[in-house]
Amino acid sequence: MSKISNILMASATLSLMSFSIPSAANALSAKDCSAKYREAQAAGTLGAQKWNDFRKAQCGADAAPAATPAAAPAAAPAAAPQAPASAQSAAKPATPAAPVAVGSAVFPSAIAAKYASEKPGKAREKTCLDQYRINKDTNGNGGLNWIQKGGGYYSECNKRLK
């Protein structure tokens, strides 16, 4: 009896494991991925994204099939990041200036009024973080991570606010 239950347990474990292994059927071949990367390069939709980042995001087994680099800039309207600023303007008369779009990344152009009492470095960090979170919803980060080697979103945003 215990031998049968062990076999059933092993069978159940194997079938559960098969669901957790990502399927390589969704992944693009290296040749197809390279062609897709060159198309994005020619269209100028890569931003600061390098080959490895592009390959992981667009060509891997876990890449979303509808996520194309050409769709990212179109989904980053300048008006969308203003939603929280309009909520602030009702509470305070002074609103920060409109975010500045550089390439396909959107950065704030001034420190947010709600962080004016903070130390300058902390105010820049919190303002940039707020804008980064807004941009995540609208694909307005231009492929930048918050912090990454070679300068991420925070590094670029901090430079612009200094």
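The above is record 1. Record 2 follows with the same two-line structure.
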Amino acid sequence: MNGLWISTLALLRGRSDEEAMSRVKAYDDHEEFAWLLKKWQEPIRRLCTRLTGDAGQGEDLKQETFLRLFRNRRQYERSAKFSTFLWRIALNLCRDEFRRQERQRQFLSPPLDAREAEGSEGAEAVWEAPGPDSNAVSAEEGALVRKALLELPEIYREVIVLRHYQDLKLGEIAEVLGIPEGTVNSRMADALTRLGRALKPKLRPSLARAAQPGKSPKSLLCYESSKT
């Protein structure tokens, strides 16, 4: 009862994520944990969905993130930002899942010739569709961006998702990933270059004319992230 009263007082006066997590660590405060869950579950779900490319896995990984957060509560240090601690847990889970998927893909991959044939037929199926209107073009562009994003190496995909979908600043991304800000900046530039190379041959002139003019990988990311 006393813990409930203290939590209620904390809610009334307003408290930081760090204060709430400190109470979770010290007292196993389930009400403070529920408050953190309610506040952060949607950003974590979006992060996991973007990194894995699957909404169902995003939901599963979100739940696992908060289970692990509570399980690892004793490791939290008050001097650290709560968001950094939480992002790292989610990122590590996504990395594990992506590597598991990669091993599965390698195990199940058909021979190279069959993959090339399937890829060729798939591309034709996409571009043989009737001429789209502006909304359809935007939806198709979004799908192309998401696919190209998933094909980026992990180090590039993470900085893109954290910056363009989670709206973290470069310094915050550096803190989450444990790397210098300059490294984040160079990875971002490389990631955008790679996206541009991947997307350019797939955006046919007819699509480019129907869509907004002058779209770069960065502007496509900004548009596509606003639809999530």
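DSSP finds twelve helices and no strands in the chain.
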